[in-house]
Amino acid sequence: MAFEKFNEGSQGNFPPREMVKGNWKCADCGKEITELPFEPSPDRPIYCRDCWGKKRTQKFGR
């Protein structure tokens, strides 16, 4: 899954984020991830957009 729409609709005068390409799997659902807006740390889990959204909602109560 790519985060192609990550920068769409962003506010401010920030340049688009550089995407890091690779082959990862979501720590929750196992979905393939091919692009991330950051360099992942080997000691932290990586989540797809759907699982990250669910975790963010749970954590921050939104």
For the structure shown, list the relevant keywords.
62 residues; alpha+beta; 19% helix
Report on the structure:
This protein is of the alpha+beta class. The relative contact order is 0.23. The longest helix has 12 residues, at 49-60. The chain has one domain. Strands 1-2 form a two-stranded antiparallel ribbon. Helix content is 19%, strand content 18%.
Write the layout of secondary structure elements.
Blueprint: E1 20-25, E2 32-36, H1 49-60
Antiparallel strand pairs: 1-2
> Could you say which overall geometry the principal axes of the C-alpha atoms support?
globular
- Could you give the order of the helices and strands? EEH
Terminal CA distance reads 24 Å
Structural class: alpha+beta
Poorly predicted spans: none
Total discrete domains: 1
Based on CA atoms alone, the radius of gyration comes out at 13 Å
State the major sheet.
Answer: 2 strands, antiparallel
Beta-strand level of the residues, as a percent range? 15-25%
With strands numbered from the N-terminus, the spatial order across the biggest sheet is 1-2
